[in-house]
């Protein structure tokens, strides 16, 4: 999957449970399951990974925005601005997909990486929540496809990609 970003991808740094301060409200970082800084022969990229088995992507926006404080609204405005999205967003869109993706952009800038990437790494045999990921990709006029990086903002600085990686189910056995 990462070969789409260039030849010979290799790991430079990996940090589990990496917190990224988000724009907008002053409370609440985006805690990524894994942050990766990697390099190909031609590019460096910052990658945030959201690991899933059966759990959802937290709350959909319709629920997250119930009785929303001014800080929450400010946070959503900042995330939409960073992603180039117009509000209102669909109420069934999951907030977690927004902030995990923006955290990849923030870290790409922090590390002066060439590319920002957010990947959902799913170990669900039923591909639970792929439909939520597909709705998110559709906001950028991109059709979701498993195990393939999707350029959702290729002309931005940094260029932004998202992906759904299907994990090998044998790793679910203890």
What this model shows, in words?
- The chain has helices spanning 61-64, 70-83, 95-110, 130-138; strands at 10-21, 29-39, 44-52, 115-122, 149-153, 160-166.
- With 174 residues, it is α/β, with parallel strands linked by helices.
- It contains four helices and six strands, in the order βββαααβαββ.
- Helix 2 (70-83) packs across helix 3 (95-110).
- The model has no long low-confidence stretch (mean pLDDT 92).
- The longest helix has 16 residues, at 95-110.
- Strand 1 (10-21) and strand 2 (29-39) form a beta hairpin.
- It has one domain.
- It is globular and about 45 Å long.
- The chain has a six-stranded mixed beta sheet, covered by helices on one side.
